[in-house]
Amino acid sequence: MSAATLGTAWALDWIARATKVVSENRIELIELDRAIGDGDHGENMDRGFTAVAAKLAGAEPASPGEVLKTVATTLMSTVGGAAGPLYGTAFLRAAKGADGDLDAAGVATMLEAALEGIRARGKADTGEKTMVDAWTPAAVAAREAAEAGAGAVQAIRAAADAAVEGSEATIPMIATKGRASYLGERSAGHRDPGAQSSALLLVAAAEAAEAAGAGA
Amino acid sequence: MSPDGAHGRAVRTGIVVVSHSARLADGVVEVAAQMAPDVVLRAAGGTDEGGIGTSFTKVEEAVLELLGAGEVVVLTDLGSATMTAESVLEMLDDDDRERVTLADGPLVEGTVAGAVAAQGGADAAAVARTAAAAAASFAHAGEAPPPEPADGGRTVVLTLRNSVGLHARPAALLARLASRYDAEVSVNDVDATSVLALMGLGLGQGEELRVRADGPDADDALAEITKVVEDGFGEE
């Protein structure tokens, strides 16, 4: 069980755990989105990942990249609102960034590719109270871990922890992108729902890696 | 065959209208189709379940269908509609993507102006440019600086006969005629190939059109425009 890299089984377990955690947190995401958006983020994400689970149930992907590409295309077609194209692009770019099984550097490259996709599609930067505020620290943390000689599991765990902190850090921010920006200063005091769902997904990725017992 | 058929360049660009609302997308297509009868327009509005939002699948299907016949311009309404359209472009094969252009510009005015340009034979890049310029041409219609003085070309002065004035349909017909000839054509000092500029003149029945044309086909252009205006654009 102890491998140095994260492979297809990890990717499938990640997405299965992501589907479960999105479903469990559906109400929380709806309430976060209701405070500063249109209140459909939890519903949309749950619908999207339910469709992803159905799609992957009949598939036999040969690589993590193939798993992520299926996630991308399914989310684009089933998640409404801005989250569909944003997460779809994130997983699509992650799929292109994932070259075979992933070591720590591979994890960092995959997360950097996803971040770049989100930034390009949403035209958002850090500090604007969006998903970018979770993905940016995640990608940075994974790269730092890889360069410090960590293994793949530690790299994805570092990314997940950084994403959770990044989501937390959106609470005092004033939104300047997306629907929440219409609220101006009234958007402060609420956690960004997209940053929160991003943190949930990356924690699921770390838990799947730890469950696989992949070594450093 | 449209009335433009005899001299017109072949229509080669189709247009996909992406909106959060299916009814809005359908309505924009309905309006633009009135003015550009040979242009293939497809509405991609609402979610797959018919709700408010945009559907990757609907946009992708519309783009792929139109790619079968030529180039494609995509117009969108609000934020995530643009993101959905960009995602569709990102997923296309390289060969297909080269023939699809995402246009900036206001949805209604941009689609109308772009469709009229497409009817005149414009390629996707030119249709997208026309769509992007639509907001400016509406905002500045009537206050635009007159083009260079009439040092060349010929001018005819015509009287608008049709009872409802130079509204969208006759304006589009006039713009299509103007774009068909190898000549610079203006009406009352605005670009006659711009349907929005023509509509912006707000001309009513009995008012004058000063039509100027300069270029190799100037005489032919003036002759046909004169005929159409005197015929009341076929509306009576």
UniProtKB/TrEMBL annotation, chain A:
<protein>
    <submittedName>
        <fullName>Dihydroxyacetone kinase DhaL subunit</fullName>
    </submittedName>
</protein>
<keyword id="KW-0418">Kinase</keyword>
<dbReference type="InterPro" id="IPR004007">
    <property type="entry name" value="DhaL_dom"/>
</dbReference>
<dbReference type="GO" id="GO:0004371">
    <property type="term" value="F:glycerone kinase activity"/>
</dbReference>
<dbReference type="Pfam" id="PF02734">
    <property type="entry name" value="Dak2"/>
</dbReference>
<dbReference type="InterPro" id="IPR012737">
    <property type="entry name" value="DhaK_L_YcgS"/>
</dbReference>
<dbReference type="GO" id="GO:0019563">
    <property type="term" value="P:glycerol catabolic process"/>
</dbReference>
<dbReference type="InterPro" id="IPR036117">
    <property type="entry name" value="DhaL_dom_sf"/>
</dbReference>
<dbReference type="InterPro" id="IPR050861">
    <property type="entry name" value="Dihydroxyacetone_Kinase"/>
</dbReference>
<keyword id="KW-0808">Transferase</keyword>
<dbReference type="GO" id="GO:0005829">
    <property type="term" value="C:cytosol"/>
</dbReference>
<feature type="domain" description="DhaL">
    <location>
        <begin position="9"/>
        <end position="207"/>
    </location>
</feature>
From TrEMBL, chain B:
<dbReference type="GO" id="GO:0016020">
    <property type="term" value="C:membrane"/>
</dbReference>
<comment type="function">
    <text>Component of the dihydroxyacetone kinase complex, which is responsible for the phosphoenolpyruvate (PEP)-dependent phosphorylation of dihydroxyacetone. DhaM serves as the phosphoryl donor. Is phosphorylated by phosphoenolpyruvate in an EI- and HPr-dependent reaction, and a phosphorelay system on histidine residues finally leads to phosphoryl transfer to DhaL and dihydroxyacetone.</text>
</comment>
<keyword id="KW-0808">Transferase</keyword>
<dbReference type="GO" id="GO:0047324">
    <property type="term" value="F:phosphoenolpyruvate-glycerone phosphotransferase activity"/>
</dbReference>
<feature type="domain" description="PTS EIIA type-4">
    <location>
        <begin position="12"/>
        <end position="139"/>
    </location>
</feature>
<dbReference type="InterPro" id="IPR004701">
    <property type="entry name" value="PTS_EIIA_man-typ"/>
</dbReference>
<dbReference type="InterPro" id="IPR036662">
    <property type="entry name" value="PTS_EIIA_man-typ_sf"/>
</dbReference>
<dbReference type="InterPro" id="IPR001020">
    <property type="entry name" value="PTS_HPr_His_P_site"/>
</dbReference>
<dbReference type="GO" id="GO:0009401">
    <property type="term" value="P:phosphoenolpyruvate-dependent sugar phosphotransferase system"/>
</dbReference>
<dbReference type="InterPro" id="IPR012844">
    <property type="entry name" value="DhaM_N"/>
</dbReference>
<protein>
    <recommendedName>
        <fullName>Phosphocarrier protein HPr</fullName>
        <ecNumber>2.7.1.121</ecNumber>
    </recommendedName>
</protein>
<feature type="domain" description="HPr">
    <location>
        <begin position="153"/>
        <end position="236"/>
    </location>
</feature>
<dbReference type="GO" id="GO:0019563">
    <property type="term" value="P:glycerol catabolic process"/>
</dbReference>
<dbReference type="Pfam" id="PF03610">
    <property type="entry name" value="EIIA-man"/>
</dbReference>
<comment type="subunit">
    <text>Homodimer. The dihydroxyacetone kinase complex is composed of a homodimer of DhaM, a homodimer of DhaK and the subunit DhaL.</text>
</comment>
<dbReference type="InterPro" id="IPR039643">
    <property type="entry name" value="DhaM"/>
</dbReference>
<dbReference type="Pfam" id="PF00381">
    <property type="entry name" value="PTS-HPr"/>
</dbReference>
<comment type="function">
    <text>General (non sugar-specific) component of the phosphoenolpyruvate-dependent sugar phosphotransferase system (sugar PTS). This major carbohydrate active-transport system catalyzes the phosphorylation of incoming sugar substrates concomitantly with their translocation across the cell membrane. The phosphoryl group from phosphoenolpyruvate (PEP) is transferred to the phosphoryl carrier protein HPr by enzyme I. Phospho-HPr then transfers it to the PTS EIIA domain.</text>
</comment>
<dbReference type="InterPro" id="IPR000032">
    <property type="entry name" value="HPr-like"/>
</dbReference>
<dbReference type="InterPro" id="IPR035895">
    <property type="entry name" value="HPr-like_sf"/>
</dbReference>
